[in-house]
UniProtKB/TrEMBL annotation:
Pfam family membership, one: SBP_bac_1
SUPFAM superfamilies: Periplasmic binding protein-like II (SSF53850)
Record field: transmembrane: none
Highest taxon of the lineage: Bacteria
Keywords recorded for this protein, A-Z: Signal
Protein's recorded name: Extracellular solute-binding protein
Natural source organism: Agathobacter rectalis
Keyword Signal attached: yes
Signal peptide span: 1-20
Gene3D superfamilies the record matches: Periplasmic binding protein-like II (3.40.190.10)
Coiled-coil annotated spans: none
Amino acid sequence: MRKKIISAMLALCMAGSLLTGCGTSADAEKKSKDSGDVTTVKWFTSRPVDGAIDQVMHEIADEYSEKMGGKWKIEFETTADRPSYLQKLKTLIAGGNMPDIIDIDADPYCQELVDAGMLVDVKKFLKDNGKYDSFYPTALKYQEFTDGSMYTLPLEYHVEMTWYNKEIFDKYGLSVPKTMDEWLDVCKTLKENGVTPISVDGVDRWPVQRYLAMMPFRESGNDYIINLRDGKEKMAGDEGKEAATFMKNIGQYFNDGFAATDYATAQSMFLDGKSAMYYIGDWEIAAMQDAYKAGKIDYFYLPTIENGKTDASEFCVNSGIGMAFNAKTFDAKTKDFILYVLDNYGEKYAAKQQMSPIKTELPSDVEFSDLYLRIRDDMDKTGAQFLKPWDTYLDADTNTTMQDNLLLLASGDMSVDDFCKLIDDSIATNAKN
């Protein structure tokens, strides 16, 4: 019911009636966007400042502005901290001040904006302009809602894997695990020998949540989390309990104090040889490069289970937070800029040793590392299914409840039954009626 009320409020804001302060007149919007003879587009972004995407988009925007004779410019406003970004974004939109371009996942809040008619249909835009097939299919599939609609544009493309210390594995005669049971056995051997099996960033929560999603993905792809969200499955059901049990089992192999361990510390532990494994995506290629080149580390993808729905070529593949467009201000000039981005982004982004969601030939004047080329080849061979992060499916309240209590479950301070009940109760309270 809460979501219906929010959606109704958003719709009223779009209509510019009944709710004071929601929306602005067409004349005011035009005046804001076209100051004098210069068109200004505002992008409220959560991308890291001076990160690869930020650098490339600034470069393209500068080129496009020059092409337009200085009559067009883009204003970037960045809030890289995601919780702060989302809070500010919701405040802006509720106040009728939605930027021209925003960053957002295809999550329940994004669906509310779509239902209120506030976002551009990106799938239609790409197809109408002959750009849809320019992307890797999985990069676009990741941005879709479960009904196949798509309102966000990917600017990145990633695979996630478990990195492991080859020297530690060799010392204890361990092989790369091919099944989930073998993975737990490897962890057990390491712990029995006084080695921290896995270092984890518990501060940001999402790395822990990935482990909860692993068993259900192997069992039934993304069907379980979709049905859980929709109230058709229970966390206390067989598949949910299996997921929570795996979380509890593997959690005993996380580093001591993982709940207070941040991203940088967890990664440093692994690279310094203080943990044997570390789960993260290819966006950390630069950090892993030296140790990989020296033959000290390698990686493996999500192990499988017997009779599972997904296979070894299917694991967590994502195209990150998407770029979405204000339906009310998406005029011909903005469309032309986005088409310019699509024509120039892929090669520029790849040149920074990043995986582009847009199919592109690698620049000949850039020397790519063996690690980059190997992972890029892996991405060309991924299966049709991919593990989609659970935080893109769940409502905000349930996701917070899940992420916070996962720390207790993984550390052994909460039972499987208690955890499952908390999640089921939260979904029952917050699910759309």
